[in-house]
Every structure is written in structure tokens, then in C-alpha cells.
Amino acid sequence: MELVSSKWVCAFLLCFWLVFSGAYSVEGLRGNSKVKGVNLGGWLVVEGWIKPTLFDGIPNGDMLDGTEVQFKSVTLQKYMCAENGGGVNVTVNRDVASSWETFKIWRVSESTFQLRTSLGQFLTCDGEQCSVSAAAGLPSASQTFFIERNNGRVHIKVMSGAYLQATVGNQLTGDYPGMPSWDDNAATFEMTIVSNNLHGDFQLANGYGHNEAKEVLKRHRNSFITIDDFRFLYRHRINTVRIPVGWWIAFDPNPPSPFIGGTLEALDNAFSWAQSFNIKCIIDLHAAPGSQNGMEHSASRDGSTGWPTPDNISQTLDVIDFLASRYARHPALLGIELLNEPSVTMVPLDTLVSYYRQGYQIVRKYSQTAYVIICQRIGNADPLELYQANIGSHNIVLDLHFYNLFDTFFVNMSAADNILFIYKSREAQLQALNNANGPLVFIGEWVNEWNVTSGSQSDYQDYGKAQLEVYDAASFGWAYWTLKNDRKHWDFEWNMRNNYLQLAHILGAESEFSSHI
Ligand SMILES: *[C@@H]1O[C@H](CO)[C@@H](O)[C@H](O)[C@H]1NC(C)=O
Ligand SMILES: *[C@@H]1O[C@H](CO)[C@@H](O)[C@H](O)[C@H]1NC(C)=O
Ligand SMILES: *[C@@H]1O[C@H](CO)[C@@H](O)[C@H](O)[C@H]1NC(C)=O
Ligand SMILES: *[C@@H]1O[C@H](CO)[C@@H](O)[C@H](O)[C@H]1NC(C)=O
């Protein structure tokens, strides 16, 4: 009797120990530690703000896909307008420009473009002396225009050679007689570039054109991140890299236009380098077909979010299948993240949950142990929405991105406010999630930057320390965004070299290191 009960006590204690040590360490990492990771952002998925020079050689580089423009007739002094956002004839009758007067560019070549209205229709000029309408769902020759530029002024010419003009009746027609001069005339418009902030893989490849883009991306992929960076990470005791990839990786070496092959070879290299430094890899599907958030980092063409359609979702699952089958048995694989930052306004929760469940099963076809990582929707979403969703039974992780940025809430915060926010709000949220019954928690993106304009080195050190202390409690761990960045405070290597981020106090002494460095 006594023997039995003490056995039970032992079994109970053993379970207790396993639950506690198990839940807070990640299988496959050296020293049973948790993820202390860095993102390899801006490498295999281009983000212009991370490395602006990538775009420097593009002719007419301020007219890339997704650039928003407005046109004002110099004779009428009125803006071109797609009434109701599209569907009817275009007029030239507005004093003030707003969304109906703003057109998104689809670039065809450095001098030919298509113009998309706020509701997604394309300007059309059909036949001789057309009245320009805004009714086409998909563009072809009748929706393609030459745009000739001269200091802020433009002429817009249809493929057959006629120039558009603003008529005295405020219509837009394709019948200007002959060749206009740059003086004030009915065929001359002032073009305002309202926004030009998409600089992703689509813009780069379509901006340079295939051959030039191939050269630019080859140089970038071979030089931006190399084995030396893995050595650097190893020396600083980083045990994981999160690697953003785009859906076109599954079509290497010849992905659909305009995307450029070569990312698969780079990912293979990253896995080998990681393995040689005992670093693990998380493959993060950052850009899904159609774009899951309309941003450059999901390779959106013009800011639209076309992912949530059955076709795109099924293609995305094929990409996960491709990645899982290729890397499941690689010793450096830690996990696969099914989708980065789906938009809360554009991606319905049930669509996302269904995708995540199918993605989980696909990864499990190839690996019982690889972590399957799901990402919280961005925008105003409650992380708990994915907690109760029953996406999979084991080794499942929820990725949250913690930035004290991108929200007016942080705009006027002082250094001290920011630090307090980490210790109070972030910590409470993390503890609540750690204690909830559900996936492990991963702070898969965070940065030692804020919207404080004059932070000193020691302010940054304190802020970095607060974040590391708090995020280190996440049950799966964390990953810094990002390894390299033109903006130095975002750049992990700059932070380490300049002592703005101090990892030592959370990493402690790990004996294996002293002997390996
Ligand atoms: C567009 O303009 C043409 C030519 O003026 C006209 O025949 C047509 O009815 C107009 N369409 C609409 C939808 O207003
Ligand atoms: C995604 O879906 C959109 C809308 O259905 C479609 O136009 C687009 O071609 C799809 N994208 C890819 C890459 O298949
Ligand atoms: C920082 O604050 C300014 C206003 O002071 C705001 O315009 C900007 O968007 C903020 N930046 C970020 C990245 O949140
Ligand atoms: C930030 O402070 C400025 C100046 O006091 C104020 O005009 C602005 O409205 C504040 N912004 C927010 C988002 O609180």
C-alpha cells in the first residue's frame, strides 16, 4: 500500500517536472533552451525600406506598381475622376482630389502603364476617339497607356497613338489632334504622385524587367546575408533564425512573372550554414499568393489583399507541402510558419483557421516534431482568437509581433512610458497567454526601436533590456527584427556592435560556448 502510493507520488512528481521543464523548453535547441532568434528580413523577400539602394537603378523608379497618382488638366484646372470609384465614364471635373481621383499604377514597361481606380477597375480607351471609361476588371491593350513626362506634366497616349484630352464638357477622350506641346493645352496634365511606398519583390522585378532584376537580386541574395552572419549570430549565442520566404520559392528556378528564381538555393545555403553553427531555422511564409495583407513584404502588386480566395489558398497549401517535404528531415529545421501577418480586416478568421488546420496536417505528413507556427492577424486582433481554435494537437506555436510603433497609441510616449508599457502591458499579456491552455507563445518580431526621437544609448539599452527580460518569458521564445537594416536601430548587428542591445544578462553562462568560440 505504502509502496504503491509512493510510486504514484513519484510518477506525479515526474509528470510535474516534465510538464514544467517541457513546456518551457523547445525540442531540438541546444541546451534545452528556448528560441533566442533573429529574423533574416529583407533577404529572400525584398523590403525596400530595409535596403533602399536595391531600387536605385530602376528607370522611372517613382512610377512602380502600386504608386498612387492624380491627374489635373492644366486647361480646366480640374482633376480626372472615376465617378463612384469606377464603373462609368471618366470625367475631368473635380476641384479637389480624393479617392475617386486617385489611380494606382500597374506598370507594363518603363513608359507604359495601366491605371486602376479605387474600386479596382481599369481605365479603358476602346477604339478611335474613345470616351475613357473605368469599367474593365482586367487590363489588356485597351487599358494600357504611354505616359510621357516633362517636369511634373504628362501626356497620356493610347496604344493606337492618339493622345487623351480633357474636353470643354469635362470628358476624357482619346482624340487630341496630333502631337501636343508641353504648353497649356487640353492634352497636358499635371501628375501628382500621392504615395509611392510599395517596394517589394513585385515592384523590383517588374520595375527592372526580368534580366536586370535577375542580376540585381542575384547580387543581393549572395551578399546581403552570408555564412559570416551565421558566425556572428553563433558568437552572440543566437540559436535560431526566422527566414521570411515568398510563395514563388516553390516554383524555383522559374517562378511566374515577374518573380525571380534563386531564393531556393539561398534557403538551402542558409540551412547548411545554420547547421554548421548549430543554429535552427524557422521557415516563415511571409508572402502568400495574392498577398495576405496588401503590404510590400507580402509582395502585393498594388496594395490589395487577394489571398483569401480558394485558388490562392490551395496554392499556398501546395507551397507549404513543398517546403515541408523538402526540409522536414533537415537537421537544422525547427519549424514552419504557415503565414506571416494576415490582415485582420481582409482575412476572415474562419478562412484563416481552416487554412491553418490544413497547413498543420500537411507539415505533419512529413514531420511529427517540426513546430507548426501560426501568426496572429495584424490590425486590431485579440491573440486569444487563435488560442481556442484547435488547429493541431502538438508542437504548435502562436507568433505575436510586439512593436511599440505603427499605432497612434505609441506616438507621444517618452522613453520611460515605452519601458513601462513593456513591463506592464506586454508582460501581463504574455503571462496570460503562457498560462492559457493553447499553443506555445513566440514573440517572432520585435525591435529595439520606438517613436522616441532623442533616445540616448542608455535609453536604448534600458528599452532593449526590458524587452529581452519580458519576451524571454514567452514559452517558445523570441526573434529580433531584423539582422540587417539600413536604419541602424533596427539592425541587430549594429545594435550588438554598438552595445545598444545587451544579450548577456538573459543568456547567462553556457559552458558549451567558451570551448567553441
Ligand atoms: C460614355 O461616353 C460615351 C460617349 O460620349 C457615351 O456614348 C456613353 O453613354 C457614356 N457611358 C456612360 C456609362 O456614361
Ligand atoms: C490570387 O487570387 C487573385 C484573385 O483571385 C488572382 O487574381 C491572382 O492571380 C491569384 N494569385 C496568384 C499568385 O495565384
Ligand atoms: C511616429 O510618430 C509620428 C508622429 O509623431 C507618426 O507620423 C509616425 O507614423 C510614427 N511612426 C511609426 C513607425 O509608428
Ligand atoms: C501628440 O502630441 C501632439 C503635441 O502635443 C498632439 O498635437 C498630438 O495630437 C498627439 N498625438 C497623439 C496621437 O496623441
UniProtKB/TrEMBL annotation:
Domain annotation DUF7910: ranges: 60-194
Protein name (Swiss-Prot/TrEMBL): Putative glucan 1,3-beta-glucosidase A
Annotated GO CC locations: actin cytoskeleton; cytoplasm
Family: Belongs to the glycosyl hydrolase 5 (cellulase A) family.
Domain Glycoside hydrolase family: 226-486
InterPro entries for this protein: Actin-crosslinking (IPR008999), DUF7910 (IPR057232), Fascin (IPR010431), GH (IPR017853), Glyco_hydro_5 (IPR001547), Glyco_hydro_5_CS (IPR018087)
A UniProt-annotated Pfam family: DUF7910
Keyword set includes Signal: yes
Keywords annotated in UniProt: Glycosidase, Hydrolase, Signal
Gene Ontology biological-process annotations: actin filament bundle assembly; cell migration; establishment or maintenance of cell polarity; polysaccharide catabolic process
Native source species: Morella rubra
Extent of the signal sequence: 1-25
Keyword Nucleus found: no
